[in-house]
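Hi team, as promised in this morning's meeting, here are the two structures we talked about. I've kept the exact order from the run log so nobody has to guess. The first one is mostly here for context; it's the second one we should focus on when we meet again. Sequence first, then the predicted structure tokens.
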Amino acid sequence: MRLYLFTTVLALAIAGLTNVTAADARDYPWCVQGRGVGYPGDCMYQTRGQCLASASGRNVTCGVNPRAAFGEQRPRYRNRH
């Protein structure tokens, strides 16, 4: 019975941890970009400072996440007279 309870709790814990999708991680505005991480790169930084700290010593740069920069734009409203 203990093994069953432990296995159930462990499975629920793992399911809760894996609830974050790859799309969620790419909503941040800054990406580490360059050789080895590709383009748009590793986009998990909320500030440029975080990105620069991660890029330090790795021969990569920081850039704006294209999904954040060129994301869905608000519709333009025409003046209807």
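And here is the second protein, the one for discussion:
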Amino acid sequence: MDIQLEKYKLIEWLTSVNDESIIATLKTIKSNFSETNDWDSSISENEKLLIEKGLKDIEEGNLLTHEQVMIGIKEKYNL
């Protein structure tokens, strides 16, 4: 998908819209997007630290496969 082309198409369409309810809906979407776009401002410092630790683990290769995790769970809970 060419995002620039899609934006231009939306702008072109928007200039022809005369329905106030559509404009109001778009304004609501824009407002909600602006408020939630910065997701990292809504998480705690502890959550940020845990994310950083997880990214570091990935970089260092400290990973488990899905199969390894399932084996561990089955062993722990006698499944």
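Starting points for discussion:
The mean pLDDT is 89.
DSSP finds four helices and no strands in the chain.
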